[in-house]
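Researcher: I need the complex structure. Ligand is iron/sulfur cluster. Inputs:
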Amino acid sequence: MCICLNCKYINVCKQYFFIEKNHKEKNININAFFNPTYSIINITYFTKSNKLFIEWDMIECLSFKEKPANWISYY
Ligand code: SF4
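Model: Output:
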């Protein structure tokens, strides 16, 4: 699971903007300005019903600041 969902900076973070873009989702904030430190994205490829899917998840980030379920307030 992407740790950004429980991060205080989800609405201003450029890396989360990048993940949303790759998931082809609507961006929370097109003017994201926050550059996180040492963030690591895990990319998983899998197939389902003969279709290829790609999952993008932030797994490590030194800038992470816990704010449980913060993403809910932006969707
Ligand atoms: S965990 Fe890191 S990359 Fe994800 S929203 Fe927070 S600061 Fe940004």
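Model: Summary of the prediction. The chain has one domain: 3-74.
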